[in-house]
Amino acid sequence: MRRLLAPPVALVLSLVLSAPGVIALGPSASLVSNGSPVGTTPQNHQNEPAVAMDAHRPAVLAAGFNDFVDWQPCPEDAATGSGTCRGSNRGVGLSGVSFSFDSGRTWTQPTYTGITSRDCPSTAVADCTPHTGPIGTLPWYAENGLISSGDPAVAFGPRRVNGAFSWENGSRLYYVNLAGALNATFPQQEPIRGYLAIGVSRMDNPTPENFADKNAWLAPVIVTERTSATTFEDKEQVWADNAASSPYFGSVYVCVDEYRSNGQGAGFSQTEQVARSRDGGDTWTMKQVRSATANAAKGFRGACNIRTDSDGVVYLFYTHFQVGTPGLGAHTLQKSFDGGKTWTKPRDVIPANDACFNIDQVSGRCVADGGAGARIDLLSMPSVDIANGAPTGADATNEIVDAWGDGSLGLNHEVTRLSHSEDGGLTWSAPETVSLAGDRPIYSAPAIAPDGSAIYLMYEALTDPWRGADMTSSRGYHGIFRRATLDASGSPGAWSTLLTGPLGDIRATYPGHDIYQERVGDYVYAAASRTYGVGVWADASDASVCPDVQDYRAASYAAGQRVLPGAPWPTSDCAATFGNVQIRAATSAE
Questions:
Q1: Which pLDDT does position 295 carry in this prediction?
Q2: Cβ atoms of 581 and 382 closer than 8 Å
Q3: What whole-number distance in Å separates Cα of residue 80 and Cα of residue 76?
Q4: DSSP secondary structure string, 499-532?
Q5: Residue 85: closest CA among 504, 568, 576
Q6: In the prediction, which pLDDT does 28 show?
Q7: Which pLDDT tens digit goes with each residue over 48-92?
Q8: Is 492:486 a contact under the CB 8 Å cutoff?
């Protein structure tokens, strides 16, 4: 149940935020994942939102997010016997999509057809057989022997007609996500190899008239075709070169963290890969941009970001830090001046502290709020944007902005920091704190106007201190959307807070497949035009804390392992809105 800590102003804001389609004057927010139920778990759970803006038509936005809307309602035997709400979901996708055609004021999540378990009973796993029916996730995966498996990234670029890219041809939406094989067992064979691959779906010129038409989508294409049988792809991002001034205008780039087994089961090596396409995503060429390293020996590298400037220079950022508590390291930059064919050597450019002060003794993940907490493994990852002057490139400043969560000030003093560069990443401003006092940010994302006039910041944050083994005290959590005007030197002036999301309790969340863990995902996103900005986050203000779940989490945390059997069944033991994490968008458009 939502816990309101403020008087009438907060109440009015929460009412605005909870009503999809409501338009407020000035900065406002709306429900993005409005095709999902609020009272059936795990179908009511979404996380890891991404957003893209069409530079040619800035009022047009697309969002991607992990969505459990098509899963079987939580089966009793899975919950009580295994501590999970994972039902019979073979072939069921996880990649939700939603569209806005009014600058983010309202959103619609379309319904297509595909493999679903959403109308199965919740009595037992065996009582459900996935089948063809309505879905709230990407279409055409099952028909092509694939499963959309989440971790979404989205981008708009120009459309290619008769071999040429032009905004006069319209735009193309690229939706990149993890993809699995529909009927394969590990190690998977055709249509993919490896544990998970990267798939891309595409739609041309989305409009209010065609976005809900399944046939408006092209069949998904596998980006990472040439991988080994033990390869695991993760945390990908997509970007289309959207400035017409670029010699590589229309090129599309996908960066991905790639994990490879060393043949010893638990051990992996890891590297960064970049795929590029010059034909609108029909075909892809993969490039390994740095040597593979063993995580434990040489530190972790991952959580990539990729962007282009008005001259077509490609910028690849990722995190480099040593494994530890906390992990200390840096943001690493590599550049390509020839459309992704060759890359400069890696260079650490900004120091970062990953705020991993505590590793949960059951899940083994970095957590910031307490036992059984929400993971923060990627808190310090770079989130980057460039003022490249899209769609023409004519008024580009090519300023680069980078925002991230940082733990340099210690536990309970985590902040969002921001740095910027005006010389192609050669030098950077001293990192400044841009989050509000009292917030403990976990994930952050900036967006800079194409002409370099303003910067927007989306972050989600905890509001209570580290709770340790205390499972009964509140663990406040909300989203914040901010803006600053940039001066002639590219430095931000005073920050204003455009929207403070309603307060929720992160204890009311879980990832669907594990009742023990809280979960709001691993990232947020933002985008900007010359006149407005938009940000998306995972909101838990309408999710209810479940005492029985908290008792189970406390017992498991104390035991150092999941106490099974004995887990609660959320359908009968919790309020209907337990786990009800929803994707919301904040926009400054009036």
A1: 55
A2: no
A3: 6
A4: EEPPPEEGGG---SS-TTS----S--EEEE-SS-
A5: 568
A6: 74
A7: 999 999 999 999 999 999 999 999 999 999 999 999 999 999 999
A8: yes
Residues near 322 by beta carbon (within 8 Å), at least 6 away in sequence: 299, 300, 328, 329
Residues of the chain with pLDDT under 50: 1-26, 262-266
Please report, as a single letter, which amino acid is at residue 410.
G
Q: Are 103 and 61 in contact (CB under 8 A)?
A: yes
| Residue 302: predicted pLDDT | 82
For the domain 8-587, what is the CATH code?
Answer: 2.120.10.10
The ranges assigned to domains in the chain are 8-587
Give me the pLDDT at residue 231, please.
66
Type of residue found at 534: V
* Beta pairing class for 217-222 and 197-204: antiparallel
Q: Shortest CA distance to 571 belongs to which of 50, 80, 65?
A: 80
Q: Rounded to a whole number, what is the distance in angstroms from the first to the last CA of the chain?
A: 31
Strand ranges, E, within 354-453:
383-386, 400-406, 415-421, 432-433, 440-448
CB atoms near residue 491 (< 10 Å): 13
What pLDDT, on the 0 to 100 scale, is given for residue 17? 37
Number of residues written out for the chain: 590
Sort residue 10 into left (φ over 0), alpha (ψ -120 to 50) or beta. alpha
Instruction: Quote the pLDDT of residue 271.
Output: 81
Q: How far apart are CA 589 and CA 103, in angstroms?
A: 6
